[in-house]
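A.,

Following up on our hallway conversation. Structure tokens first:
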């Protein structure tokens, strides 16, 4: 990896971050808080939240086996996807490389930040070649994005392919593990010490059952986490989200139960789906959804909409022609999907 300072935008390296009221008094025990121009009358939300979310991180740390200082929390992992563009990529000059197809926000963030987005097509089995990714890079490539398990294809990539990119790329590698809780593969977050250029993303929106609270996680070296903290909005995770996260993190058996129910349902739904006359191919999945090639994706999509069942039509996504992406629902939702599709003519 290049020296971190050589990867970071010079203005960000030099940036003196905003120091908020809650940063300045930290560690001091006080009963009178007349420093932040808040309304003093208690209604549970009249105070600003903890800017660095110490309590939430203290609960995540043992669970994910990552020290608190290597964790960033953001307003969804979408925030943790956007910040690296603002930290590393000089608008109009730098570029990023990503597999294609993949999660659409990488490209949206690149374009919002005026950063060239280079796509490297997956092969017919939805795998990527590390050499192809590396050869798409030039001296201005700051980040490579690898989503594993990948959205929308559903598959996790072989570990050695990701390791090769981590070893050989001189810039930052973001491994988005939003769906890793559904996959038997070992998480890359255990490797942040080994690879100083690695950022691993996780989210509360999938297995954790909390898409509505908007809480995403990034795991990386303390230097990279320091840069995230420098650039983020001072109070990026609101007080209601922090409270709810603490509640969710206090009930790990519920999380485990949900994951195993979703995985059981995934196998049942896949087996039934494969026997449907509309199903031409069902792709292997390590996530809580699967991609299926069907006889007529647009027509079936609209037929399901009419029945009040919404799946994701991926027919116009590169390499996903003819495909629908189906999230594993409850037993009842999956039964409704199957019975609607059995009636389709
Ligand atoms: N990464 C991937 C691969 C996703 O599919 C999604 C959501 N669809 C996200 C990140 C965004 O997650 P969050 O809700 O944490 O912003």
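Then the amino acids I'd put at each of the 345 positions:
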């Amino acid at each position: 990896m290049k020296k971190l300072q050589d990867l970071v935008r010079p203005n960000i390296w030099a940036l003196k971050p905003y120091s908020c009221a809650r940063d300045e008094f930290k560690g001091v025990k006080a009963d009178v808080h007349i420093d932040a121009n808040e309304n003093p009358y208690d209604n549970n939300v009249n105070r600003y939240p903890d800017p660095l979310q110490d309590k939430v991180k203290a609960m995540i740390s043992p669970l994910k086996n990552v020290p608190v200082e290597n964790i960033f929390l953001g307003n969804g992992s979408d925030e943790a996807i956007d910040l690296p563009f603002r930290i590393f990529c000089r608008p109009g000059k730098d570029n990023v490389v990503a597999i294609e197809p993949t999660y659409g926000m990488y490209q949206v963030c690149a374009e919002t930040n005026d950063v060239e987005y280079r796509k490297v097509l997956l092969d017919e089995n939805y795998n990527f070649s590390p050499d192809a990714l590396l050869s798409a890079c030039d001296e201005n490539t700051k980040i490579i994005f690898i989503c594993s398990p990948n959205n929308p294809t559903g598959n996790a990539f072989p570990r050695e392919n990701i390791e090769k990119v981590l070893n050989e790329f001189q810039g930052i590698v973001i491994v988005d593990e939003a769906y890793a809780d559904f996959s038997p593969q070992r998480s890359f977050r255990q490797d942040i010490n080994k690879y100083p250029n690695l950022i691993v993303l996780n989210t509360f929106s999938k297995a954790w059952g909390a898409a509505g609270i908007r809480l995403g996680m990034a795991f990386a070296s303390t230097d990279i986490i320091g840069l995230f903290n420098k650039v983020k909005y001072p109070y990026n995770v609101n007080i209601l989200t922090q409270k709810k996260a603490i509640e969710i993190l206090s009930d790990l058996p519920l999380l485990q139960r949900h994951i195993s129910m979703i995985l059981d349902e995934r196998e049942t739904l896949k087996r039934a789906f494969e026997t449907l006359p509309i199903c031409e191919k069902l792709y292997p999945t390590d996530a809580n959804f699967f991609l299926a090639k069907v006889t007529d994706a647009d027509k079936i999509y609209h037929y399901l909409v009419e029945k009040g069942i919404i799946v994701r039509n991926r027919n116009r996504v590169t390499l996903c022609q003819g495909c629908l992406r189906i999230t594993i629902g409850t037993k009842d939702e999956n039964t409704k999907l199957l019975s609607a599709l059995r009636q389709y003519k």
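Residues 76-78, 103, 147, 151, 176, 178, 203, 205, 211, 216 surround 4'-deoxy-4'-aminopyridoxal-5'-phosphate (CB under 6 Å). Curious whether your intuition agrees with the design.

B.
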